[in-house]
């Protein structure tokens, strides 16, 4: 049972209504996470802005989705695992084996694997990574800017994981469950 209510986009008012209209126009629907975030238009707008700008970064959509899965598995967020598995497969075109492996920070491409492992390390160490951790991801070919983007992707996904775990958001994608809860 949800702990925070999702707003009905047809009944929303003010800035949340405007944001819902934009989401509806872009996605053809307003996912439950965003409907629930809409209880505070600043929460929803903050999420949308950071998500949008990171989508324009150097890492690309594929790595962004894989990072989201690594983070969601680490935080046992079934909503985000479900959403990013669906988006990764249907919208970004990532095969299901690659999506599944990302949940454990595994990838056949050593550079992608290094980013996923760095994300996992960030979470495990609450952001207090070592110089060696940073040097490892640099050695894989990431610039200081790209490392900053990895950190930002992790932060965005920790936010959505915590939000959905708090709200117990109804999953409106094919359900994927974390290996450990």
UniProtKB/TrEMBL annotation:
Q: Which domain of life is it from?
A: Bacteria
Q: What PANTHER family does the entry give?
A: CMD DOMAIN-CONTAINING PROTEIN, SI:CH211-175M2.5
Recorded hits in SUPFAM superfamilies, A to Z, give:
AhpD-like
Q: Supply the name of the protein.
A: Carboxymuconolactone decarboxylase family protein
Pfam families per record? CMD
- The Carboxymuconolactone decarboxylase-like domain covers 53-120
């Amino acid at each position: 049972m949800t702990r925070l209510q999702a707003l009905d986009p047809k009944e929303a008012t003010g800035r949340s209504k405007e944001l819902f209209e934009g989401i509806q126009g872009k996605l053809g629907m307003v996912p439950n996470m965003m409907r629930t975030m809409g209880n505070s238009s600043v929460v929803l707008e903050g999420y949308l802005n950071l998500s949008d700008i990171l989508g324009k970064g150097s890492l690309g959509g594929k790595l962004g989705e894989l990072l989201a899965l690594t983070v969601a598995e680490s935080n046992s967020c079934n909503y985000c695992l479900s959403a990013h598995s669906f988006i990764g497969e249907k919208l970004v075109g990532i095969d299901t084996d690659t999506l599944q492996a990302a949940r454990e920070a595994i990838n056949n491409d050593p550079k992608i694997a290094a980013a996923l492992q760095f994300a996992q390390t960030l979470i495990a160490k609450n952001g207090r990574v070592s110089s060696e951790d940073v040097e490892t991801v640099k050695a894989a070919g990431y610039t200081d800017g790209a490392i900053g983007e990895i950190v930002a992707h992790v932060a965005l996904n920790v936010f959505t994981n915590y939000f959905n775990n708090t709200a117990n958001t109804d999953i409106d994608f094919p359900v994927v469950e974390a290996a450990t809860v």
